[in-house]
């Protein structure tokens, strides 16, 4: 078993290897996009899906990853937009502290909406501009497009690294 798959929780490995794989993958990416997936690093999800479901399903896996993560991020964006800072910080399921939100608010203030796809395409900042974008009352359509673009770049890069890495090592 490859390293990315071995690090996924056993129940997730089993579900992704089942006939419900694409449905489960969509749900996993919705949770990841909403910053509610704490059982597996987002960097392992597409490579793990490629191992368990098969690289011949690359395009459906990427499509599901982008759609699911964008749906999850949009849900969090709407909560931030409608609920506001105090509401979000008071929720036990929201595990980002105020100092991190303030740091990413500064990024949004400095670079504007284009920082949304940039942050979605980078390790460790993925999704972190969702909340400041909601606080800034960014247009929902614009957020959806920019969020999906950044997610496509991120997940596409992970898939390419996995597929190229597998060919180099074989």
From TrEMBL:
Pfam families in alphabetical order: VTT_dom
Superkingdom classification of source: Archaea
Compartments, record wording: Cell membrane
This protein's record includes keyword Transmembrane: yes
Listed transmembrane segments: 20-39, 59-80, 143-164
Topology of this chain in the membrane: Multi-pass membrane protein
Residue ranges annotated for the VTT domain, each copy included: 41-153
Record's GO cellular component terms: plasma membrane
Alphabetic keyword roster: Cell membrane, Membrane, Transmembrane, Transmembrane helix
Keyword Cell membrane: yes
The protein, known as: VTT domain-containing protein
Organism expressing this protein natively: Haloferax elongans ATCC BAA-1513
